Amino acid sequence: MNRFPLPSARSLFAAAVMATLGHGTAVAATPLPPACGKAPSGESTAQRIAAVTPSRSEPGLYEGPVWIKDALYFSDFSFSQGFPSRVRKLALDGTVTTAIEDAGSNGLAVDKDGKLIAATHKYKALSRYDLAGGRTAVAERYRDNVFNSPNDIAIAQDGTIYFTDPDFQKAAAPGGQPVTGIYRVGTDGSVTLVDGSRRNPNGIALSLDGAQLYVVAGDGAIRSYDVKGKMPQAGRELVKGIENGDGMTLDCHGNLYQTEHGAKRVRVFSPQGRELATIRVDANVTNVAFGGKDGKTLYITGAGAVWQTRLDVSGLPY
Fold first, then answer.
1. Distant-in-sequence, close-in-space partners of 22: CB < 8 Å, separation ≥ 6
2. Tens of pLDDT along 109-128?
3. Neighbouring-strand partners of residue 60
4. Quick check: pTM over 0.85?
5. Which terminus of the chain, N or C, has less C-beta within 10 A?
6. Phi/psi zone of residue 94: left (φ > 0), alpha (ψ -120 to 50 degrees), beta?
7. pLDDT digits (tens, 9 = 90+) for 270-311
C-alpha cells in the first residue's frame, strides 16, 4: 500500500501489524499502520469502476490485482489462441493505461524492489517485470520441464515465492508438468514441489506472520499448510464448500478474502475458518487486493470489470 515505502509493501505491512499485535518487533523506521479497523460483516455489494472498460474485442478476464505506490495494476487477458495478456494500470485519478503490452500474465505480485512478479502463462514460468516492460525469468522449470500455466503468487518477507500451477491456460505454449502443483521458489532460485496432489490449485496467500500458506483448489477447499523450517508441511482443510475458488488476499487482522468465480462473490473468513462476510458483484470474479490512499479500498477483478468497495479495515496489496 502506498503509505509504506519499499522494501516491500507486504513485508513492512506485516511487520507493522505483528508489532502492533504484540507478535514481533518492527524496526524503528517501519511506519505503523493506523488502528486496524473493523473487519466487514454481513452482506454488501461492490461497485463497478466505470473507467475500466474492455480493451479487446474478444471476451476475457481481468486478473491479478496488485497495488503499487499510487495505482492498481492488473492483468487483462483473452481466451483467444495463446491467451494474450497485457498489464493495465488504474491510477488514483481514474485514468486507465497499458503498463506492459505483451506480458502474457495472469496473477501478479510486487517484490521488495517494487517490480512486478508475474505468473506468465505465455512463458510457462514466473517472470519479473520492471514497470517499463523489461522482463527477466524468476523460475522457468521443475525437473527439466516448463510449468503448466502459473496462476497466482505469494511472496514471503525473506523473498521466498510460492505459486500455483493449474492447467487453465496450458494450451498457451507447448509442454507442462504431469501434475497441477503448488511450488516454492527459494531465494537461491531453487524450485520445490510443495503439493502435487490437488486438482488445479488456484488462489494462494501467506498469513501475516508467514507461518501459514493458504491455497484454494478445484477440490472446493482452502487448505492451510504450516511453514516450518521454511518448507510448508502437509496441508489441513481450513474451509470447505468454496465454489470455484480463485484469488485471495488478507486484511490486517489476518482474515482471508476469498473470491468465488461463478458465485460472483468474495467471502471473508477468520484465520480459524469462520465465515464473517460476503461481498457481492454482478459478474464472475477472479481476484482481490487492498489499495487506495489509505489501503482501505478493496479492489476486485473479474469478467470485463473491476469493482471497488470502501472498508473500515486495511489489508495487503495483492
1. none
2. 999 888 999 999 999 999 99
3. 78
4. yes
5. N
6. left
7. 999 999 999 999 999 999 999 999 999 999 999 999 999 999
Q: What is the mean pLDDT of each run of 10 residues along the chain (318 residues)?
A: 39 49 33 72 97 87 96 95 95 95 96 94 96 90 97 96 97 96 96 97 97 97 93 92 98 98 97 98 98 96 96 97
Residue-by-residue DSSP string for 205-266: EE-TTS-EEEEE-TTS-EEEEEEETTEEEEEEEEE---SSEEEEEEBTT--EEEEETTTTEE
DSSP alpha helices (H): ranges in the chain? 9-21
Residue 56, Cβ density class (10 Å: 0-12 exposed, 13-18 middle, ≥19 buried): middle
State how beta strands 256-260 and 265-269 pair. Answer: antiparallel
- For residue 184, the tally of other CB atoms under 10 A from its CB is 21
Mean pLDDT for all residues in the chain: 90
Burial 256-275 (b: 16+ CB within 10 A, else e): bbbbbbebbbbbbbebeeee
User: Per CATH, is 9-310 categorized as 2.120.10.30?
Assistant: yes
Start-to-end CA distance of the chain, whole Å, equals 9
8 A C-beta contact, residue 275 and residue 269: yes
Q: Which three cell numbers stand for residue 150?
A: 502459473
Whether the bond between 5 and the residue before it is cis, its omega within 30 degrees of 0, is no
